[in-house]
Structure formats: C-alpha cells, structure tokens
Amino acid sequence: MKHLKTILILLALVFGYGLVYSANAATSSELQSQIDVKTRELQNVQAEISSAQAQMAVISKQSQSLDKELKTTENTLNQLNLSIKSSTLNIQKLTLEIEDLNSRIGGIGVDVEAKKKAIGLILAEIQKNDNEGTLQTFLKSMSLADSLLEMQSLTNLQENLSVEISSLNKLSNDLENNVRQTADKKRAIQTENVNLVNRKAIIEDQKDYQKELLAESKNQEKIYQENLDRLAEKQAEIAAEREKIEQELKAKLDPSSVPASKSGILAKPCLGPIVQQYGRTAFALKAYKNQFHNGLDFDLNIGDPIFSAEDGKVVATGDLDLYCPRQSYGRFIVITHNNNLTTLYGHLSRIIVKSGDTVERGQLIGYAGNTGYSTGPHLHFTVYASSSFYMGASKSCRISPYGADLNPNNYL
Question: What CATH code is assigned to 220-410?
Fold first, then answer.
C-alpha cells in the first residue's frame, strides 16, 4: 500500500493545480466583468464624441461671426473634455487588463511548478521500481491486486509523461506571450498618460483663448467684424511677403539638390485626411492674396497627435501668435532631415519638442490646433529644400520661417 499511496500523491500533484487554476479563473472572471463595464462606458463616451464632432461640422458651415467663434470654442472644449474622459477610461481599462493578465500569469506559474514537481516525483518512482524489479515490487505488495494496480498506474503515468511535458512547454510559451502582452499594455498606458497630461494643458489654452476673444470684441458683433477686417488685411500682408521671399528662393533652387519624387520618403504627419492640396487650390484662389498654398492641410480635431515625417533634428519651434495673432502659422515646429528636406508643422495647439531635439520618424512631436490664420482645427504641413530654409526677419510678424517650398505629395 505504500507505493499505492505514493502514486495517489503523485496524481494529486499532477491534477491538484486545478484548484489553484479555478481560484484564478474566478478572479479573472471578476476582472473581466469590470473590464466589460469600462468597455461599455468607453462606447458611451465615443458616442458623445461623435455627436460633438457632428455639431462641429454644422458650426463650421456657418459664416464667420462672434457667435460661431464662441460656439467653436465651447464645442472644442467639450470634445477635449470627452477625450480626456475617454483617455482616463482607457487607462482604467488597460490597468484592469494588466491585472487580469498578471492573475493568469500567476496561475500558470503555479501550474508549471506543480507539473515540474510531479514529473520529477514520477520519474523517481519509476526509476525506483525499475531498480527493484517486478518480482520485488510484487513481493512487497500486500496483495496481487495492489501490485497489479500499482504497476498499471505507473505504466499509465509513464505513458502520459510526454503529454505532460508537452503541456508544460505550451504553458511556458503561453506565459511568455502573456508577459509580452503585458509589456505592450503598459506602454499603451504610458502613452495615454502623456496624451492625457498634454490634453489638459490644451484645454487651459483654449480657455485663455476664449477669454481673449471676449475681451477683444467686448462681446459685440460689430467690433468683432471690424477686427476681422483688420485681421484679413494683416493676413494678406504676411502671405504676400512670404510668397515673394519663397518664390525668390525657389527660383534659385538647384532641383538636383533635393530627392527625386518617390512615395514613402516622408511619412504622413497625422491620421487625418487631406482637405487642401498644394498649389493654386480653389480655396487659395479666393482666400489668399497670392492665390497659392505652400503645403498640405490635414483635417483634424484639436488635440489630435502630430508625428515627425522622418528622422531629423528640430531646428525651430515657436508661436507666431505672440507677434501677429491669428495671422500666420501660430504654433509651429520645423524639423530638418538627412535627405535635404525640411518639414514645417503649423497651427498646433501644443508643442512637446524643443529646438535641438533629435526625433525619429513617427515620433509624437505635438498636437493639432487652431492657432494662427486658421478657419478650423487642422495641420498645415510644408516641405522645404533644407539648403534654402531659414528663420528670418519679417516686416509684419517679427521672425518667421522661410524656404523654397516643394510639393509634399512628391514625397509622402
């Protein structure tokens, strides 16, 4: 009976981990319920965001007025608050998912250790019986039935040994996969935290903008329209000055100094669609005195991420609204790349890199906004020949970025 008891202990070790697994499964079930709650909350917030975006689309079709500006600011603030709420829920959801993964990893770890211990004991018992021989095992048994039962049990365990080892390897692989998934989730949470902090700052910027708007117009449509007329004159003056300088730079540019047209040389700087092309577009013909658009416009919401189009070095950042409010690029970033191309990102709401920083292709550098001369939230993206780019004095806007602009479509 001694050997029979040993076998029963071994069987308990092999299959007893099921109790631990069951306990972990219960914990996982509870966590999954909490995750499901967060998922439903996220879906509700996304529905609110979609509704706010639809309202913004309606507002954007209205003629420019003080009422439209105030509605736009209010709607933008609402969208940003919803985005923060969505980010917070995502962080909570990801935290629960990581906790669930850690719980499962813990259960697998216990399972693995139990199997290792059981396999070791099984091997020892089989080796022991092999050394004693069948006759000795039979003589030590209290009865023929006990002896046959023990031998049959050991034979079954031996036959299942390879299956147990295979299962052990699979569990180890599952554990490694779960660890990788956990690391990915943690990185996602860190990114969400960064975005959350920056979006909060963007909201504060928008509140300040709203206060300035009310102050300058004294809440009167007549004053607001007079300000718009003066602003249009200044915008035209700045655009004409820039166009003259950049046309001169383009005339001097050696075409062989820039890369030949090829898709993929630059990555898209954001996820939004292009809403205004490069050149003499329909909008440029009626909105710009020079009738020329020196880049691409991407339709975005305030707070949407902006990425570097290629590896490079940040050579300039700034806020032209400090010198010529609502007349130029507003907050902008300029990055020079190793392929003799330089890229400009305008109308940003927030900049998270500084001049001198080295950046990688696809790296987050800022957030979309509505600063400078902008009829709505978007990204203005210009590509210059690096050899021609410089930050120079401006008659109407202190210091501004200039260069021989190229068609971005030739490189995206």
Answer: 2.70.70.10
